[in-house]
Design brief:
299 residues; Rossmann fold; UDP-galactose 4-epimerase, domain 1; 2 domains; 7-stranded parallel β-sheet
């Protein structure tokens, strides 16, 4: 039986990657600082991935054949510039080395659209320049380069999933989608920027499933985790307002958009669709409906 270790498996996206592995017959181990209460079919481990001794003990015990690594600093408002990105990078390298030492075969790590240059608007793997402008993007890109080189030296099968924009249950309430949903559910107005930014959104549920599919595939290299469908923020707000029946409560222009924010930042998802063979089976509206229903229980 194949065994997968999902590092950061209790996180916003990581938790959604577990079910596909279970359904595919993998022995699933989720390791995180937090534990989940809704997955009786997995083995859970409370582990700090910055603790090299704890990581070595865990990997030596379970000896996973597959690794999906989400473990990284993700605190909203901090991760772009935090020096903890360097700690995350160090932890990622240690996990990779330990995984290989104990017989690991296939590794997928999680990257970000912040690795790309945002000047052209459309990001295509192996074509768009890799030119991060933040500490977060730079450290992720460094991990990507290390993974690519290390996998070649050690003969590992590897891939790198670059996440674009997402939303879903368990999201930090200060992020864009919940920052609109929460006040509207309470009949209050929601401040927003001008809303004309064009982005690529895919739900955290879909990204988790897509990353599991990538891990179980033989595809190597960088793969965009994205819908391939451009949408502007005003359209997302409009869908949310319609679903909540709160038309006109969003106040556009009340939040100043960053001066250096790109007007367009979207992705090609051709590798995900045609090489990995994964397609989203739910529309943005359907996923927003599920997200709103989740927030109704947690406001």
């Amino acid at each position: 039986m194949k065994t997968v270790l999902v590092a950061g498996g209790a996180g916003f996206i990581g938790r959604h990657s577990l079910k596909p592995f279970i359904e595919a017959g993998y022995a699933v181990h989720s390791a995180d600082l937090n534990l989940l209460d809704c997955f009786p079919d997995i083995n859970q481990h409370k582990v700090d991935f910055f603790d090299q001794i704890a990581v070595r003990q865990l990997v030596s015990e379970i000896r996973p054949s597959h690794l999906l690594n989400f473990a990284w600093i993700t605190r909203h408002g901090e991760y772009w510039t935090s020096p903890e990105n360097f700690t995350s990078l160090k932890g990622g390298v240690n996990l990779l080395e330990t995984f290989a030492e104990f017989g690991g075969q296939r590794v997928v790590m999680v990257g970000t659209c912040a690795e790309y240059s945002w000047k052209n608007g459309v990001c295509i793997e192996d074509q768009t320049r890799l030119e991060p402008s933040t500490v977060y993007g730079s450290c992720k890109l460094a991990m990507y380069e290390i993974l690519k080189s290390y996998a070649k030296v050690k003969g590992l099968s590897w891939a790198w999933g670059r996440i674009f924009f997402t939303f879903g249950p368990y999201e930090n309430p200060a992020r864009f989608v919940p920052a609109i949903i929460k006040p509207l559910l309470q009949g209050q107005s929601a401040p927003c920027s001008h809303g004309n930014q064009i982005r690529d959104f895919l739900s955290s549920i879909d990204i988790g499933e897509a990353l599991a599919a990538l891990t179980m595939s033989e595809v190597q290299g960088a793969v965009n985790m994205a819908s391939g469908q451009p949408i502007n923020l005003r359209q997302i707000v409009g869908i949310i307002e319609d679903l909540i029946d709160a038309k006109g409560l969003t106040k556009f222009g009340e939040i100043k958009a960053p001066v250096d924010e790109p007007p367009i930042l979207i992705a090609s998802n051709q590798r995900l669709r045609y090489e990995v063979g994964w397609n989203a089976h739910h529309s943005v509206q359907q996923r927003l409906t599920g997200t709103i229903n989740w927030w109704k229980k947690h406001v």
